[in-house]
Design a protein that fits this description.
Length: 355
C-alpha cells in the first residue's frame, strides 16, 4: 500500500489547504511546513515531531501541521499515536480524504484489514477521484481474498484443486511486491480469471429475410419521409441548458452566502432530502454537527471561484474553488457539488472536497 512517507510532498499538495492568516504569517507557516517535510524526508522523524508539536502549541487546529505530526508519529514507531492523530483529523475535517488513507495504511500494517477497508472506502466516498485510495483498496481486497482462500482450504480440502491456483496467484502478487519494492495493482490478474470462467457466446441464429415490400408501399415511401426539424429546436435546447446552468450557479452562490451568514435554515435548506452525509452519519447527526461548527464561529467567509457547471436533465454538477475562512482558520480547496432539481429548486445531494 502507498504510505504517506513515500509521497509526502504530493500528498501535501493533495491536501489543498492553504493557511492565510496574513501575508507574513502565511510565509512563516509555509516555511514551517517545508522545514518539517524536509526533516521527514531526511529520516529525522523525532525532530520533525518535536518541531510539529512546537508549532501546534501556537496553532493547535492547523490541519497541515496535524497531518505532518501524524506522519512523524508513524515514522517514529508510534502507530497508536498516529492513529489517534489521523482519527481526530477525520472527525474535524471529514471532507479530507488523505487522513482516511493514512489511517488505512496504519491499520493494514497492524493486519486490521476490515478497518483499513472501511477507512479507504471513506476516503473514496469523500473524493471519488482519489487514485491512491483506489489503488490501496485494491491491495486490501487482494489480501482479504488471500485470507478467504486459505480459510477455504482449511475448511474443505476437497476444494484444493480450484482454490490453490487462486491462492498461488495472490501470494505471487504480494511476493513480487516485496521483491521489487514497488506496489503492483491488485486488479492485474482479473482478466485471466474472467477469460477462463466466461464461455464464448453461442452464435446468433440467422435472421429470416425481410419480405419484399409491395409496389404500392414502395411508391408511398417518399411521401412518408418526415420534414427536417426546424433550426429553432437546437437553439431552444441550448437556451434551456443555459437557463438551468444559471439557476445552478445561483443555487451554489446562495448556499455559500447562507453558510457565510450562519443562516442555518437557508444553509440546511440547500440540501435535498436524498443528501448523503459523509462518514456514515445520519441526516440528523450531520445537521447537528454542521450547526455546531457554523453557529459557534464568530465570523465566516465563503468565496466561490472558477465555478464550472454541467447539467444533464434534472441533474447537475458544480465544480469550483472554495476559499473558506473562520476565525483564525483559512482553507482553500477544490469542491464538487452534485445537485438535482426538485419542485423548481436545485438541491445538493452530494458534496466532495479535493480532486
Amino acid at each position: 500500500m502507498k504510505q504517506v512517507r513515500r509521497t509526502l510532498p504530493r500528498l501535501l499538495r493533495l491536501l489543498a489547504l492553504t493557511a492565510l492568516v496574513g501575508t507574513g504569517a502565511a510565509q512563516a507557516q509555509a516555511n514551517d511546513y517545508a522545514e518539517i517535510t524536509q526533516l521527514l524526508k531526511a529520516g529525522k522523524a523525532a525532530e520533525a515531531l518535536t518541531k510539529a508539536d512546537q508549532r501546534l502549541s501556537a496553532t493547535p487546529r492547523d490541519p497541515q501541521l496535524r497531518f505532518l505530526k501524524g506522519v512523524a508519529q508513524a515514522d517514529s514507531g508510534k502507530p497508536a499515536d498516529a492513529v489517534a492523530t489521523f482519527t481526530k483529523l477525520t472527525e474535524d475535517y471529514p471532507e479530507l480524504p488523505e487522513p482516511y488513507n493514512n489511517l488505512a495504511v496504519l491499520y493494514a500494517n497492524q493486519n486490521q484489514l476490515d478497518k483499513a477497508r472501511t477507512a479507504l472506502e471513506m476516503a473514496i466516498r469523500t473524493n471519488p477521484s482519489y487514485a491512491t485510495a483506489h489503488e490501496n483498496l485494491g491491495d486490501i481486497y487482494a489480501k482479504l481474498a488471500s485470507q478467504a482462500y486459505n480459510k477455504a482450504l482449511q475448511l474443505d480440502a476437497a476444494n484444493a484443486t480450484s482454490v490453490k491456483p487462486k491462492l498461488a496467484l495472490i501470494r505471487e502478487l504480494f511476493s513480487a511486491d516485496i521483491a521489487k519494492g514497488a506496489k503492483p495493482t491488485a486488479a492485474a490478474p482479473a482478466p485471466a480469471v474472467v477469460a477462463t470462467q466466461r464461455p464464448a457466446p453461442a452464435p446468433a441464429p440467422a435472421a429470416a429475410p425481410a419480405p419484399t415490400p409491395a409496389p404500392a408501399a414502395t411508391a408511398a415511401a417518399p411521401a412518408a419521409t418526415p420534414a427536417p426539424a426546424p433550426a429553432a429546436v437546437p437553439d431552444a435546447a441550448k437556451q434551456e441548458a443555459a437557463k438551468d446552468a444559471k439557476e445552478v450557479t445561483a443555487a451554489v452562490q446562495a448556499w455559500a452566502a447562507a453558510w457565510a451568514a450562519k443562516d442555518m435554515k437557508a444553509y440546511l435548506g440547500a440540501y435535498g432530502k436524498d443528501f448523503d452525509p459523509p462518514g456514515r452519519m445520519t441526516r440528523a447527526a450531520w445537521e447537528k454537527e454542521r450547526e455546531a461548527r457554523i453557529v459557534g464561529k464568530s465570523k465566516i467567509t465563503v468565496q466561490v471561484s472558477d465555478l464550472n457547471v454541467s447539467v444533464n436533465g434534472n441533474k447537475a454538477t458544480a465544480r469550483f474553488r472554495q476559499a473558506y475562512s473562520a476565525d483564525s482558520l483559512n482553507v482553500s480547496s477544490r469542491k464538487t457539488l452534485d445537485l438535482v432539481e426538485s419542485n423548481g429548486r436545485w438541491l445538493i445531494v452530494r458534496e466532495a472536497t479535493g480532486g
